[in-house]
Amino acid sequence: MQTWYECKVNYLKIDQGGFERKSTDNYLVDAVSFTDAESRITAIMKELTRGDFKIKNIKPSNITDIINNKEGEWWFKVKIVYISIDEEQGKEKKVTNYCLVSANDIDDASKQLHIGLEYMLVPWESKSISLSTIADVFPYIPVQIVLPKSKDNEDQTTDDGIMDVEFEDEN
User: Fold this and answer.
1) Staple partner for 30: which of 7, 35, 140, 143, CB 3.0–4.6 Å?
2) Alpha-carbon distance 14 to 7, whole Å?
3) What own/partner pairs with CB < 8 Å and gap ≥ 24 does 33-41 have?
4) pLDDT exceeds cutoff 80 at 117
């Protein structure tokens, strides 16, 4: 399960007129801890901005699902509710989740939400859709280690330079 952190960053941004102005934006980062979220947003902001930036706040987000439409211009926060059955007590209970959907407008967000949640087997309904303050979302992307070929690792390296690593069982 992914853990999302909302990071508020203050930096100089070039506006449409070509002038620099101070801006504070919220970003959503997939991380395992506050420290990981801070290091990830720092690395991301070093690539996105030129000059100084300041991380103002990092907090856990209540977002459980991201529905990313590559053509969407805005991020919409959607509150969905579905019924779950507590197997121990045999009672129904309402479960509330929040999704972030990229779309061009509210109607498009609703459409993208229905497409993105087709996999759910239980009936659900959206309780609210609102424009989010999130500027961008950065999911975790695993990095492959690529080593140059050398005599030491030549037998372990494939033709494309990616090293195959095998771990021995300690038992």
Assistant:
1) 140
2) 20
3) 34/5, 34/58, 37/5, 37/7, 38/7, 40/138, 41/7, 41/9, 41/138
4) yes
Report yes or no: 99 and 66 within 8 Å, Cβ to Cβ.
Answer: yes
Residues 77-96 have a mean pLDDT of 87
Type and span of the H or E element at 35: helix 34-48
Task: Name the nearest CA neighbour of 25 among 49, 60, 3, 51.
Answer: 49
Give the residue from 166, 137, 152, 165 showing the smallest Cα distance to 67.
Answer: 137
Residues in the chain: 171
The residue whose two tokens read 């309780």 is: 127
Q: What is the CA radius of gyration of the chain?
A: 21
Q: pTM to 2 decimals?
A: 0.76
- Phi/psi at 45 (5° precision): -70, -30
pLDDT at 31 over 90: yes
